[in-house]
Structures are given as structure tokens and as C-alpha cells.
Amino acid sequence: MRYFYRAHCAPEAVLEFAGKYFAARGCTAQVGQGDHARYTGPLGHVDLNVEVEGGHHTRVDLATAAVGESELDKRVKRFLSELHQMEEPSHLVRGAY
Length: 97
Known about the structure:
The structure is a single chain. By secondary structure, this protein is of the alpha+beta class. The protein has one domain: Kinase associated domain 1, KA1 (TATA-Binding Protein, 2-Layer Sandwich), CATH 3.30.310.80. It has 2 helices and 5 strands; from the N terminus they run βαββββα. The chain has helices at residues 11-23, 71-87, and strands at residues 2-7, 28-31, 36-41, 44-53, 57-64. A 5-stranded antiparallel sheet has the order 1-5-4-3-2, with helices on one face. 19% of the residues are buried.
């Protein structure tokens, strides 16, 4: 599955947040060239790419190898919700994923 989000923070902040988030869930990071990272854990791997888009947004692309909604996909969705809350503290994270 593929997911994307338009963040308002710098790519470095997204990568730092992702590193902490996925490490807390038992994943190890393989930081690639540029603004790319792969997080690998017992449920599979997540590829993360971030890039500046339009000069004022950061496009956050995440991909898993799952064909349907897996437990790993739920964690990716939770990551995006928590990233939104990190940027906008008044945002309420909903859902049991």
C-alpha cells in the first residue's frame, strides 16, 4: 500500500520523527541517500521518502509491501496521524490503529 501526506515542517523534522516513531515499535532504520529511509521490523518494511514540494510543503510518501490493509499499514496510518498532531497539537488522533 502507498500513503502520502503534505507536511508543513522540514524534511529533516519528518525523518527525525519517523526514526523515533518506528524505533519505538521495534523497527530498525536503514537511512538511504537523500531524504529516504527504510524501517524494517517483524511485520515487514516501510519505505519513507520526503521531498520539498512547491517550496512550502514537504511531501511524505510511505509504502509497504502489503497488498491489503495489514497491521503494518495500520502503524503507518498511525504515524501519519501522529505526524499531523506533532505539527498541529490541537489535532485529535482518532482510531484504534
